[in-house]
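Backbone shape codes:
===
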Amino acid sequence: MVTEAARAPRPPALPAEHRQLADAVREQLWFGDEDPARSALEASRSMAAALARATGLKPFPAVAQRAISLLNDPDTPLRKVREALEKDPAIVAGLLRVANSAAYRSRQTISSVEEAVQRLGSRHVLEIVTSVAAMGMFRDAKGVGLQVRDHCARVGAMTRVLATEWHQKSAESPFLCGLLHDLGKLLLLQVSSIDYQKLDPKVLTQADEAFVHERALLGFDHAVLGGHVLDAWKLPASVAEVVAWHHQPGRAYEHGGELGIGVALVRIANRIDYQLRAKPELDEAFIAELAQDGSVQYTGYQEQILVAMWPKLRDAAQQMLSAIGG
């Protein structure tokens, strides 16, 4: 019997010189970009960046922009936040779904904007509003785009859980960092700058694979592009930096502070999500391997804690997928 998988066309094997270049890029970028200004310039000139400049404010319409501005002011009356958000029911619906998900662990159902702000705080509501607006840009994603968008949702949830459960207070906006870490891939897909299905199959199933091929083909990667666009959207600089550097861990850890911990958390959640997609049940061999990862060692997390956290991470990822995609 011939299975669907057997009938499906296989991606062409990468030429040996392409694989060698990808390996060289991976090694080079581990401790940073030798010419970050050049790669940022390449990204800024790309079709995806041009599209983001032209249409990037669409996921942040006047309604969302106004709400974010109000939430940034601690003296804003809750009534004004509610009135601003209620002009866009889709954002309100997304806010309530995310606020009631496992990632935010509300003990009682949150049923209004006011309750969300009172229970979660303005900063967390601002993060959620931003995330719902950003992912709304890709609501009609299909194929690889849908796969990437769903991955972003799950990584966002798990990054937040990792930071919250292990009291990583130095992490700035972990949910946004995780959720937006692959924004650059979504933009590249939107303008057909790269066809991931024609690359090595590992690009879609393993961490730290796609960016090396992007560098070889485009001169920049989705992380640099994502950071560039987030900066253009005037989102927090700390989030844009984590997104831009999440494939340059050595550089981020040497820098330290909230950038180092943010990159580490995103990288841990990223690896866990790829594992969850392949095998949702706990695999202690994977946990043992993960515990040796530089990101885990940087944060100081222990193997037994990762084991204990597995069900919570899995549940948070699944609930966020429903919340963002709903």
Summary: Confidence is low (pLDDT under 50) at residues 1-15, 17-31. The longest helix spans residues 303-325. The radius of gyration is 19 Å.
